[in-house]
User: Fold these one by one.
Assistant:
Number 1:
Amino acid sequence: MKNLIKSFIPTIIIMIMIPLLAYGQVTAYSSVDKDTLLLNDQLNLTIVISGSDNISEPKLLGLNNFIQLGISSSQNVQIVNSQISSTTQYTYSLMPKRPGVFKIGAADINVEGQVLRTNPVTVTVLKNASGQQNNQINQNTLIQKNPIQYQVNKQKIPSNLINNDILIDAKVNNNNPYVNEQVVYTLNLYLRKELKRANIEQPDFKDFIVEPLKDQKQSIIMVDNQYYTLIQQSYALFPTTTGKLTIQPSKISGIMVNSSDPFDFIYGNSNNTPINIKSNQITLNVKGIPNKPSNFQDLIGNFTIRTEIDKRKLKTGDTATLRIILSGKGNLKNANYSDYDLNEEMKDCFKVYPTKPQTVITDKSGNISSIKTFKFDLVPLKTGKLKIPVINFVYFNPEEKLFHTLKSEIITLTVSKGANQEELGLNTNNTTNRIDDILGIHASEISTNNEKILPQDYFIYFVLSVLPIISLLVIFYYKKHSDFINGNDFIIKERQAYKTATNQLKKLKTLMINGEEKELLINLEKLVKEYIGNKLNIAGGSLTTKDVEEILKKHGAAPKTILLTLEILNNCEQIRYSSTNNISNQGEISYICTHKVLKLLDKELGK
Amino acid sequence: MKKTKIIIVFLIILFLSLSTYLFFITTSKPFQQENMTIFNNANNFYQQKEYNKSILLYKLLINKGITNADIYYNLANSYYKNKQFAEALVNYKNAEILAPRNADIKANIKFIIDQYTNNDEAIKPTYQTILFWYHYLNLEELIKLTIITSLLVCSIGVIYIFYKHVLTSSLFYIGIIILITLFLSTFIKIYKNYNYSEGIITKNSGLLKSGNNESFSTLGNLVLGDEVKILEKKGNWYKIKLNNDKKGWANKHYVSLIDAHM
């Protein structure tokens, strides 16, 4: 408990002392984040009060010409070397209502009963459309708008800019370049008013290789007492052919906001104009490069070479990494060096393991610069002092109008004996089959003559692959069909009606031969009726002649066939019920007719 | 019914035998002795480091319509030795189409891409492993597989029709899925053969143009060894798509097609 009290006492003393220590000299000052701004810009006014935390909120004076958009505050207490300082900061976001020079920032602050007044700050508000100008600002003065906007050197202002709200102007840094020499094409867009939905259509860089230069630049310039926003975009162009080359104009379209008052839209006062303009056309006279050396690789610019090796003393079996670095102003994409040549030159001394060359293109002060690195891993094959041969690159310097040869440094490696060379497989003369080479040819006999598949072959393949499927479908259909028929007596009877009838007819022939005509006729009548019954799925045995007539008519039998059928039935019926035995030849005639009728009926009822 | 079943089984056996016979007589033709002599001579020239001569002879075989991976592979090797690396790459790629699983071809392609081109080494995507039959079989193999699968699945189908059993039904339905997949794969491969081409920039100093003649604007340089996709053909010009998705027109002179399709 005593310890607890002991530790609490200093804390309580400090707590009591803080306000006493904090109260010292109270100061307050005002500052702005910019002293010159455009009418549409926002201004931050900061009032910092230090020395006391017992203060009232500042009362700002003379803000008639500004709209207060917002306020924020923060407080900070610091203890440094037993000195306590308290700082309160108020930040006001303001927007000017009109152009002019104004004094703002004076504010009354109540600090423990006393009133403190902060210093005023002078700010200049410029009109961003045509209007009054500030005489203190000279022509072509650059105003830094915010940290992401940049410096611009003195511009050559196009003469036709005056009295224009928008202008697009194109320039090149060299109108007479050599083929493949870098030309910087700059597009300048001058804006006096706000441009909405802007769409810049790039020029058609016909006959050029284009590398856009990185950042778009933006700045504010003053021309003839008018303020303009200048937007610049540059491209590095490399002409690909000689002669007169034309760069077509760039085009810009958008909607120009004519009103400068940001609150106009509230009252429906917006007055926008659609804009569609284009830049000037540029013609270059591209010269050819005279007397090109045979090993010239179209490298144009100003380059240097650097040779690096990670070790100069090593043992056989060790690896040294050789780097040849080309760098400078211009495009090095075309620079090439075949490691095959290096292999050939050094095959007795080194195994060469090349890696893919790396090209890095950079944008330095509005020009394209590049770095290309060739990297080779070298494994010495023998001991002693081994020289790495010189590698040459030829380039053309357009400023000097001269060819230059870049030569890599001659490097001598001191190689001592390392692991057993034979074990490493290094001491071999067969350099064509080294590990870093391609695998050898296939020399074994070719057994088949694979020829291109012709459209007719595709047809055969298609048929071959589809036939089994068709067969399967046919079998499937057959199976389903036979299952269906087997499960349905009517269909079987209907299908087999004719067959059954003709079979029975054949059996009745014996009655006809034996002369049992009455019996024959009775059976014939029964046979015809049963046939009709089977064929049409009705009870045939109980049909009368009249029923037969109606049914046959209903099922579309020909009248002749119906007549013939009825005649057979009537005949049979008549004889069946007659007492006389004089029926000679009637049986035979009916038999033949029945055969005919069955045939006709099967045809006609089958339809 | 027993009689019918016997007839069906007999017909299936007959059909299978006939199909197999037709299948093999249409796909396997012996390599003629004359061509073998040319091939051996080309190999001899290669061994004697007379690469120009070996190139001529291998090309002679290809111009005769022979589509053989070994010939393309050896031609590519000859080009490589002749320091024509882009041409070598074209022919290795041709060989790879015909023999997609050949390790030597893959190794030499990797070597050329690593050492001589700006192309990134192709990373084998997962879908290539999943659709292995599509990527590791050439068109002829895929067609053969489809035909054999079709015969097998349909035979299982016939058995399933007459002898319904869990095993036959499972086999049949799995077989149908495999067969549909193979049919689709084959059709896609044939369609791609006829409609999509790839090529390689094989000559220096070519330009990528915005249209199909020299008067159009230049969009960039064609880089030797770059692989391109051929989107359209018009006269002496190809509409191409570079690896960086940039599209434009290139004169045929600068582009060699990978066209060893079967």
Note: Chain A touches chain B through 51 residues (CB under 8 Å).
Number 2:
Amino acid sequence: MQKYIARRVLLFIPTLLLASVLIFGILRVLPGDVALAILGQEAVEGGGGYTETQIRELREELGLNDPLPIQYAKWAWSMVNGEFGGESIRSTEPLSSIIARRLPVTLQLTVYTVLLSIIVAVPLGVFSALYQDKWPDYVLRMGAILGQSMPNFWIALLLLLFMVTQIGWSPPLGYSNIWVDPFHHLQIMIWPALILAWRFSAYMTRITRSGMLEVLAQDYVRTAKAKGLGQQLVVRRHSLPNVLIPVITLGGLEVSTLLGGTVILENLFGIPGLGQAIVEAAVGRDFPVVQSLAMMLVFFMLGLNLVVDIAYSYVDPRVRYS
Amino acid sequence: MGTLLEVRDLRTEFNSEGGIVKAVDGVSYDLQEGETLGLVGESGCGKSVSALSLLRLIPNPPGRIVGGEVIFEGQDLMKLTERQMRSIRGNKIAMIFQEPMTSLNPVLTIGRQLTETVELHMGYSPEAAVRRSVELLEMVGIPDARSRLSNYPHQFSGGMRQRVMIAIALSCTPRLLLADEATTALDVTIQAQILELIKNLSTELGTAVIIITHNLGVVARYADRVNVMYAGKIIERGTADEIYETPKHPYTRGLLGSVPRLDVDREDRLASIEGMPPDLDRLPPGCSFVPRCPHADDHCRAEMPPLSSKDGTEHVYACWKGHEFGPLELVQTQA
């Protein structure tokens, strides 16, 4: 098992290299000049102008005049040595502190969403399969299709609008750490988590349902019935562990789409996670922040895949022993 | 010895796109305690479905048992509640399936799959169930039984898995064992071992066995009596000797003629039964075998012959012309 994990981690290296080149490259071809953006904003705020010399000096200071390979190498090295790409050129906050502040928030939102989804989706999927083509199955499948086809941001806007206009309440604007003020924390986190979970659990319900139908038709389920086991044992002991194998695999892959949703909902609900930071930084052409945070998301995804693989080996003895 | 099982006019149907398929169409037979009965026929003739019907394990939908009685130890199984039925499955009547590769649950240990039956039906404590499981594995000839309890099915070979299946099936000392193509998926050498094992254990435990197979060699060696099925019906029944020496139904004769035999010189090609097994949702009005039968006449096309014998013996057959056929010609003709 350790060997297996070590091999998986080694395989991360080429993926990370490729992703870093892509991220770095994309940011270089985007239009817009950081030095101009910074000076322009200062000029607006300070009510003056700026000169060509100032632009050149700032570009030099930011390292923008170095050849691209050198810029890339500097950045890549800083990712390894723990500086994570230096500091924000806007706020001069070190990236290590930005990440330490923002990553846990996104992590929490993801964990809430996934937990909510599993709690809801697995029982519903099993139920749906057991009542295949009867009305509870139709109702659940309809709910799942709705959840999968409505865009997150649209539901989020409708929800916010509804809460403000109809019940005169809106989620608090400021964010609180769960350890400091759990109630306040939940008030703000519950809505995006619910919205993300609807979509995610819709997907998970569908996989669970189809997985369950497949398992129920297996020979070993027939064996279990022929032993005289009741419905409950047949489902809980003999079917469910087998259903979890595809559910974990496909669910793990789908978490990447979930991350996309997190970026949008963090912005809509003012949640200070990685997603919100990345959008803010992109708007301000704060490229060290954008590229380092994008790399963090890549790390996050790879880590998740590893967790999925390990979880997989726990439910499937054939993987564990090979 | 008394009668253990009486099946009366059992009918099982499946809904298919082409209409209703009568997979088991009025099957009747009985079984004495401790007897070994062979149920023979080609794929799709309804032999497996008739076994699953005994345990009421027909997947519904699309299948349904539409009629008949299955009197087991004096009770009609068709009238029992689902709960009562569960207390019979795996306890009084156990079943071994064809595919040892897929019939065991891949994510549960062999131990778990063995102990659950005795815990359920015999009320064993977990410790007692483990002791019993070790006993059972030793009984079916699995070495190092105690340590193998924590293994998973993929760590066993096909033959070993089928031994485990037999151990599970016999764990509650059933009165009746249904072996549905139990050795078909195994190597020939392993087949013999497994069949010997079933034979010995069933004799030891006094368990009656229904061997469901298309392998006539298996039946010849192990069955006391044989039922031959075709298109959902039993078309011939007799002792193994009667069936092998003087088969009366042209289908049985064709079946036996198509088996290579070591006791006959063979220079020509093996005989085969012409045509295809019939569509069970589009059966002809008379005898179902008519389209493939070289002896069929208008009477056969018009009326299904009953399962009977001309001279009132126990060797019965559903053929108008059965009495005309003598012992099977052992010298094979040119195909």
Note: The interface with chain B takes residues 217-220, 222-230, 233, 237-238, 241-242, 245, 315-318, 321 of chain A (CB under 8 Å).
